[in-house]
């Protein structure tokens, strides 16, 4: 079939990736019923669906651990169905997008608040007479803006007859403009921040929030952060990442050698480790990255909960599309160092999340060296604290927004100091 055929079938390789993601999501659903009873999960899901979702809203604190895991798993299974129906290519970016859906299904995305943004991107594809599969990753990365739907829909300022249509229309419009805006803003950081949609959503969310603030709609701060569940959640995570490693070696007994080749790559976006090295090495790299991220939280004395699990899964997901041990560790070390010279403790929620999500800057370490990765992490540890007020906590990829700014400023400085030709220069 040609690329323009809207009925493109999902081939065997794509089905294999979708099957693995679906099984991993099902693991979350099954684990949810080990943590809580079905009745408690149903009540918790109802609470999650009606929550406002502003950063930071830990679904484990809203509806319980079981309901949070079930919400994340169900949302990801539904998303897999959309990828299958669209006939989308399951490359590294698709894997990363679905793992972000899974991770943020624990704090901010639920089975009700993401779909109008996805529908907006679908409408854009129809308007452009292009296949939705071409823009499907943008659609699901763009669900970073999902809290805007919940904030407007469940606002205490407006009656439901007005708030629900307004929330739907706002998200449809945001979804419609995501693809062209993201393509243009990518040029600002040239792929040195892997969370381009975080940068895009941050700017777009800031404009939307500014518009609504002008009419007196001011998002109220939220901070729901659960503690005390490190042991069971650590076992759950390590078992899941061991499962990824097991799949990796089942698919490719030489997967470890493939990870070695992955770690020689800079990781600058767009990177696709599934395409360059195969699914087995990519899965193993994901498992290793997830273990490193989980170990970091435990070593610094942080909490394992909805937000930190979401951050860990984002590290693991992008280990199929740019991240690996060699380029994430310097950034994490930079954020850690930043906490030693600032008034925030290393185990403070904001610093733990900055260390994990800040690995979006991994390509800087991969391209320019570990020392620049440390510098990037150090700067990011401050930037991530400053941008949240701009969007009122309604953009889930707050660290992605901050990192986009860091990369856009730091990268040309590094190039100038190294006396390298600019990106795109034929002499490069």
Oligomer: single chain
Give the number of domains: 2
Choose one word for the global shape.
globular
Rounded Rg: 20 Å
Key structural traits:
single chain, 428 residues, mainly alpha, 21 helices, 68% helix
Can you walk through the features of this model?
The protein is mostly helical. It has two domains: 12-213, no CATH class; 230-417, no CATH class. It is 68% helix and 0% strand. It has helices spanning 12-35, 38-49, 59-62, 65-86, 92-104, 115-127, 136-141, 146-153, 160-189, 196-213, 230-251, 255-262, 273-277, 279-299, 306-317, 325-340, 349-357, 362-368, 370-386, 388-391, 398-417. α2 (38-49) packs across α4 and α4 (65-86) runs antiparallel to α5.
Task: Kindly summarize this structure in a few lines.
This protein is mainly alpha-helical and 428 residues long. The chain is built from 21 helices and no strands.
Topology:
Elements: H1 12-35, H2 38-49, H3 59-62, H4 65-86, H5 92-104, H6 115-127, H7 136-141, H8 146-153, H9 160-189, H10 196-213, H11 230-251, H12 255-262, H13 273-277, H14 279-299, H15 306-317, H16 325-340, H17 349-357, H18 362-368, H19 370-386, H20 388-391, H21 398-417
């Amino acid at each position: 079939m040609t690329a323009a055929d809207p009925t493109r079938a999902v081939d065997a390789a794509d089905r294999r990736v979708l099957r693995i993601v679906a099984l991993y999501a099902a693991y979350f659903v099954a684990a949810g019923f080990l943590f809580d009873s079905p009745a408690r999960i149903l009540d918790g899901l109802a609470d999650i669906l009606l929550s406002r979702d502003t950063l930071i809203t830990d679904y484990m604190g809203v509806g319980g651990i079981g309901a949070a895991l079930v919400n994340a798993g169900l949302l990801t299974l539904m998303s897999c169905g959309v990828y299958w129906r669209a006939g989308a290519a399951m490359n590294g970016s698709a894997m990363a997008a679905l793992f972000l859906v899974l991770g943020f299904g624990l704090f901010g995305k639920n089975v009700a608040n993401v779909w109008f943004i996805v529908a907006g991107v679908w409408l854009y594809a129809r308007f452009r007479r292009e296949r939705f599969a071409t823009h499907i990753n943008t659609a699901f990365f763009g669900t970073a803006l999902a809290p805007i739907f919940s904030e407007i829909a469940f606002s205490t300022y407006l009656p439901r007859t007005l708030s629900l249509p307004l929330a739907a229309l706002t998200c449809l419009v945001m979804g419609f403009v995501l693809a062209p805006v993201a393509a243009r803003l990518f040029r600002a950081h040239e792929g040195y921040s892997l969370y381009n949609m975080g940068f895009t959503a941050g700017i777009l969310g800031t404009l939307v929030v500014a518009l609504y603030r002008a009419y007196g709609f001011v998002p109220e701060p939220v901070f729901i952060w659960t503690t005390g569940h490190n042991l069971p959640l650590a076992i759950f995570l390590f078992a899941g990442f061991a499962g990824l490693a097991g799949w990796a070696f089942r698919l490719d007994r030489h997967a470890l050698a493939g990870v070695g080749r992955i770690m020689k790559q800079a990781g600058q976006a767009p990177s696709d480790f599934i395409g360059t090295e195969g699914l087995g090495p990519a899965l193993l790299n994901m498992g290793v990255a997830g273990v490193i991220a989980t170990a970091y939280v435990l070593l610094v004395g942080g909490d394992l909960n909805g937000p930190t699990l979401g951050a860990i899964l984002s590290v693991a997901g992008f280990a199929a599309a740019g991240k690996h041990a060699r380029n994430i560790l310097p950034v994490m070390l930079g954020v850690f160092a930043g906490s030693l010279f600032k008034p925030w403790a290393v185990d403070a929620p904001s610093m733990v999340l900055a260390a994990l999500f800040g690995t979006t800057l991994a390509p800087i370490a991969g391209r320019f060296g570990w020392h620049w990765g440390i510098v990037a992490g150090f700067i990011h540890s401050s930037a991530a604290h400053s941008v949240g007020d701009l969007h009122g906590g309604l953009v889930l990829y707050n660290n992605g927004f901050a990192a986009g700014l860091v990369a856009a400023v730091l990268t040309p400085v590094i190039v100038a100091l190294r006396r390298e030709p600019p990106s795109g220069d034929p002499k490069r």
